[in-house]
Amino acid sequence: MRISRLLLAALLSLLLCGMRDPFQPPPDICRTAQLSNWHFHGAVAGDQPIGIVRDTTGRWYRLIVGETLPTGWRVVAIHQDEMLIEIGEECTPAQWRWQREGTQHAKMDSERDAL
């Protein structure tokens, strides 16, 4: 009888602990794996700068400082060549800096030889 009680207690403790599949990666609460999939294409200057960002699906976003992206990240600063976002205090890294990506013809223009 005592053994059955111990087995029952062990089984209940395992169920209460909510064991997860050890072969699955831990959940990415901060979504840091998606950081490289977003692309900062530039900013529009004005009273309030607007950052232009594209996600993996090709959807474009016009963001201002303080706005939150669908991933939960918050825009901290927008400059001409970079955008700073806050991922979360408990995340590593807590902030991320996206550099502006070149234009479509930037490579062709930079390799041109002078006549």
The CATH C-level name of one domain is Mainly Beta
The largest beta-sheet arranges its strands as 1-2-3
Query: How many β-strands, per DSSP?
Result: 6
Cα(first) to Cα(last) distance is 96 Å
CATH level-3 fold name of one domain: SH3 type barrels
Total helical segments: 2
Instruction: Spell out the helices and strands N to C.
Output: HEEEEEEH
Oligomer: single chain
- How does the major sheet shape up? 3 strands, antiparallel
Average the pLDDT over all residues and give the rounded result: 83
Instruction: Tell me the strand percentage band.
Output: 25-35%
Structural class: alpha+beta
> What is the share of helical residues?
10-25%
What is the general shape? rod-shaped
Rounded Rg: 24 Å
CATH architecture of one domain: Roll
Low-confidence parts: none
